Amino acid sequence: MIQMSHVYKTYPSQISALYDMTLEISPGEFVFIAGPNGSGKTTLLQILFGAEKPSSGEVIVNGMNITEKGFNKIYALRRTMGIVFQDFKLLRDRTVSENIFFALEVTGCSRKEAKNKVSEILSRVGLQEREKDSVFTLSAGEQQRVAIARALINDPPLLLADEPTGDLDAQMAIDVMGIFTHLHLKGTTVVFATHDIDLIQRYSYRVISISGGKRVDSQKDEEVKTGE
Amino acid sequence: MIFFLQYVMRKAFQNIRGNLFANLTTIGIIAISILIFSAFTLISFNLASFLKIWEDKIGVIAYLKKGTSLKEMEGLLKNTRQIEGVEGVKYISPFDAVAFLESKLGNQKNLLQGIQPGILPPSFEIQLKKDYRNSTKIKEVVSRLKQFPQFEEIQYGQEWVETFSALVHIVRLTQWILGCLFLVAIIFITSNILQLTISSRQEEIEIMHLVGSRPAFIRVPFYMEGLIQGLLGGGLAIFFLYLLYKGFFLYIPPSIQVWLVRVPILFLPHWTILGILIGGMFLGFFGSFVASMRFLSE
């Protein structure tokens, strides 16, 4: 599903965000990317969804080599994944259903098909009762659920989440984690970046730890695959 | 494809409604710029058509030297008819000349009493072929006529033709210089206002990128917005130009109106109007293209 080998990312200001990053995530896995603020988690995810290009190294996501020279189908890559952010990135002047409808419409879904799909997607995150409500009237946890619903519009096999519980209180974080867990059980690969050690410890998923742009966890990908 | 076009139109009009003031400003500026350009086009078009009418009536009068024998005149008449560009030659005797003067003077023809016809020189009235009725070609015919020593003087209203041609050229030059300046201004203004529109919708655009919207789904509605602005701006310019054109006739004195029957002032032909509208659309499109190049790439 994801292969990253010897990836370096250095910004023009000579700040090194990733250093010799190598990792492999198999289909259906739930993986935490753990590390303190500024450790390179966001850069790693940005490379995975094509918002940043690595300075060197090779990255293959959902069968697409995004580091290949001339690769320009970022939109095609993003249709194979859902992305969730800490700040939700919702259109605050619109309702819950309009936010989902907008994402469906701009990806080429017909209005009729999009209208049918909105209710179905919202029911998957338990928000069907609030579809007519404005986004700004929702709690932070509910807003994050709208963002997750939007990430699911293309039925992606991969879900990338960048600190999705960062702005939520403990109970809301558990609720949102519940949605991610359900999606994982249904077969979606989840890559979840967080600095919340307590949250990570509640679940028995694989953890890739990074610090200062380097991978610092002891468990290598090969060991995970063979179950050693 | 139909779905995409529907989407593009819907989004473009949503964008315009969402930023109504900025869009109306752009349309207004485009309209004013195209109006000024179109006004010069209209003036230039009418001067050119006036020149054409005048050129159609253009002819050459070649006055013969006194004492030219009839035999020489016959030969000269034959040679003049053979010059390239000459359609016909009419001999005007001194008697014909006096009769012509009398007809022109009307009630005041008694002014000619006592004048002997012999005082007026005989002449050839030379009609030119259609292609030769312009300031460049007429000179070729005149230079051939000047080679005949029997001609005393050749008149063809040279100064008029040349002055008027120069005037038409100046107006056309002004029209195109202004056109180029307005072209740059329109592209600059449209692209800057569209940049404001784009930055006010940055959140939406970011989400479009994130959910995997194709580049065409993001960019084309903005191009369409530019096209619509250009079309509306061009349409408004033509509308106001037509009002000005009609208003012009209301405020001109009747004495000039009588003269205008002979030299009609025309409105722009349909093809020119279509060209202006397409030009406006192109400018709007290009402005939005420039804006999108700078602001829509991820």
User: Largest beta sheet of chain B: what is the strand line-up?
Assistant: 2-3-1-4
Q: What level of helicity do the residues of chain B show?
A: over 70%
Overall outline of chain A: globular
> Could you describe the largest sheet of chain A, including whether it forms a barrel?
6 strands, mixed
Kindly state the number of beta strands of chain A. Answer: 10
Mean pLDDT of chain A: 87
Residue windows where pLDDT falls under 50 for at least 5 positions of chain A: none
Strand content of chain A: 15-25%
Order of helices and strands of chain A: EEEHEEHEHHHEHEHEEH
Low-confidence stretches of chain B: none
The total of beta strands of chain B comes to 4
Strand-residue proportion of chain B: 5-15%
Kindly report the spatial arrangement of strands forming the biggest sheet of chain A. Answer: 6-7-8-3-9-10
Helix content of chain A: 25-40%
What is the overall shape of chain B?
elongated
Terminal CA distance of chain A reads 21 Å
Largest sheet of chain B: 4 strands, antiparallel
| Average predicted confidence as pLDDT of chain B | 84
Largest interface: A-B, 21 and 18 residues
Secondary-structure element series of chain B: HHEHEHEHEHHHHH
- Given helix and strand content, the structural type of chain A is alpha/beta
What would the keywords be for this entry?
heterodimer, A: 228 residues, alpha/beta, 6-stranded mixed beta sheet, 4-stranded antiparallel beta sheet, 10 strands, 25% strand, globular, B: 298 residues
Written account of the structure:
With 228 residues, chain A is α/β, with parallel strands linked by helices. Helices cover 34% and strands 25% of the residues of chain A. Chain A contains eight helices and ten strands. In chain A, strand 4 (56-61) and strand 5 (64-65) form a beta hairpin. The radius of gyration of chain A is 18 Å and the shape is globular. In chain A, 43% of the residues are buried. With 298 residues, chain B is α+β, with helices and mostly antiparallel strands. Chain B is built from ten helices and four strands. A four-stranded antiparallel β-sheet of chain B has the order 2-3-1-4. Chain B is elongated and about 100 Å long. The two termini of chain B are 25 Å apart. In chain B, 28% of the residues are buried. Chain A binds chain B through residues 49, 51, 74-79, 83, 89, 91, 102-103, 105-108, 110, 150, 153-154, and chain B through 3-4, 7, 203-204, 206-215, 217-218, 298.
